[in-house]
Records
---
Amino acid sequence: MAAAATVVGIDAQTLMTEMRSGKSLAQVAEAHGKTRDQLKTGLSQQFGQNLDALIDRVPPTRMQHAPGTPPTVTPQT
């Protein structure tokens, strides 16, 4: 919701309030001066940035074993 609110130019609480009143995301955007195409473009950019961050944020411990083999567990002493 935060990404959509940013694109529309309002805070997340306002967006949620307007959507709870029965408006679609496109209707909220249009009420705040954004076209449907501007909304789609903005969301694509926001989600693209978030996706890149998620892809790059893999903890190193998850890849310390060869793909297709189980990770090695070191017993604690």
Note: Residues 2-55 form one domain.
---
Amino acid sequence: MAVIDLTDLQEKSFLKQATTQPQRARRRAPPRRRLQGVVCVLLVELCERFTFFGIVCNMILFCTLKLGYDNVQAAAVNLVFIGACTLTPVLVGWVAESRLGRTKVLYICALLHFIGTAMLPVVAFPFEDFYIDTHHIVHSLARREQTLLFYGGLLSASLGIGGIRAILCPLSAYSLQDCSQRQLLSFFNWFYWLVNLNSVVVFVGIAYIQQSVAKNLGFLIPFTSVLLALITIHMARNKLIYQPKKVGSLLATFGVFLNSLKMCCVRYRHLSGEVSSWLDRAKEHNGGGYSEAHVENVKTLVKLFPFFALQLLYRASVTQIPSGYYIQTMNSNLNLNGFLLPIAAMNVISILPLLVLAPFLECVSTCFFSFRRVSLSPTALIIAGHLCAAFSAVVAGISELQRKRYPMVEQALSGKVLHVSSMPCLQLAPQYILLGMAEALVTPACSLVTFCLAPSSIRGISMHFLALSYGGGCFLGAFIIQVVYLVSGALEMVRNSLVACVVNCVAISSTCSAGLNVAPSFAPQKRSGDDGQASED
């Protein structure tokens, strides 16, 4: 399979079809109505992100202290939930487009979202503080009921999150077809900047409430956020639902692969002749069931698969790092001059580089383009991000060795006293900063590469495959954690210890990140003749 360096990526303009311009002008909504729709979409996306981060930010602490899980199990549950929330927009979007319809799926997902976030407070509610009979016997939920409610709530919430992201807040709703490469990079930088700005508020506010002020009422905040999202959907349901063009679908894309395999088998039995690619067997003039244009688009998408596979491996390694850092922080001294710092608030340190680098990269890109008339290379950004992730893992390993040398102290977390290291948690700040820099550099650049190198008719499908690689990386990371835990479980001295969880994850993450520094060079060839000539700014 031929590959190229992404440094050769040229600016492309996505030209409008002349025949559709009058129709678009007639269908264009009034400015006031468009503004109302944009405000509603932003409110719903804000509520959805608020709910998601509210569930995730202290899930490890909740699993270990409330449900009695060990560190490894809690980290695996956290990764699986994040992966499910990443995969469900792809699956729910396909169901909405091909089966039930967008409006019906939207209401079903909103209901599931409501049910899921309503079940989680039931698990967190302190029944032992309210239900004590005359014989002073505590009545609380049994462990089995807690587990069923907890996992049922997570599953329902992940399906609801997927529906809201896929239907109300799809990337295609932002009209990116007429943007150059530099404009696309700017969009992705600011898009993820807004997402992380929201997460800062959540990690500081909800984490402190869940951990210190009212630990058992923390999950009521996502519940309240869902109520606001439901009200917003009800008030402007006709303006929120974005209707994308009927171009390609996941089902049609996978159909090309299945049809090609089928025709290859038939060819060796009954047919003769050669084709340049096995996918050409799916073309109508070769006996297949798909048009030549659609098959050619799928062939271009296939050339992106090595890039998606490398992103899957990268995500499998890098998604383990935040869970390991969380456990590492939980076992460090959180007391800062009498103030107990929320564990999840340390994630703000990793988000700050994201908030700083986006405006900085925007300025650098503007200056670089004004002098040399070329944009920043996605290759350079991705390589720099992978290096930051590898350095972050190495720094975390060194910090873990230092943490073990400090004497133990008692520390109260969510009503329970734990024996932790006396090393101040702020000494872990460098590894958080490096991790934030990695995400700020890699994520927008990967989105840019995926969007630009795919044909215009299947750009949405290519972004779905990128999301599948991200979600699959979370599941693969959880699987790696479990495998490492089982292997180290043979040694009694390391089983259930923090080193078995954190150091092993850091070692795996460091190795994978270092190996993936060459990932950006394994990109497919450019699409040919798809989008016209490059535009100038």
Note: The chain has a mean pLDDT of 71.
